[in-house]
Design a protein that fits this description.
The protein is of the alpha+beta class and 73 residues long. The protein has one domain (10-61). It is built from 2 helices and 3 strands; from the N terminus they run βββαα. It has helices at residues 36-48, 50-61, and strands spanning 10-15, 18-23, 28-32. A 3-stranded antiparallel β-sheet has the order 1-2-3, covered by helices on one side. The radius of gyration is 12 Å and the shape is globular. The protein starts with 9 loop residues before the first strand and ends in a 12-residue tail after the last helix. 7% of the residues are buried.
Amino acid sequence: MKNKESAHPHFFAEYDKRRAKFSLRQLRKVDGRLSSRAKSFVLEWAVQHLDELNENWNLIGSNQQHKIIEPLE
């Protein structure tokens, strides 16, 4: 059984020594701190890779290795 933190699909982003948690369902920051600019880059990237993020969530939930997702260019 998953713990409370991992019950809802999410991913983490790190930038400039700051970390934030983003919901995959609503594509919004739910915890942590990033600058407004970094947050907008993360959300732009997440929209482009939403299918891959969801696939990785399912892989990890099945105890499988996640796939590398290309960074924002």
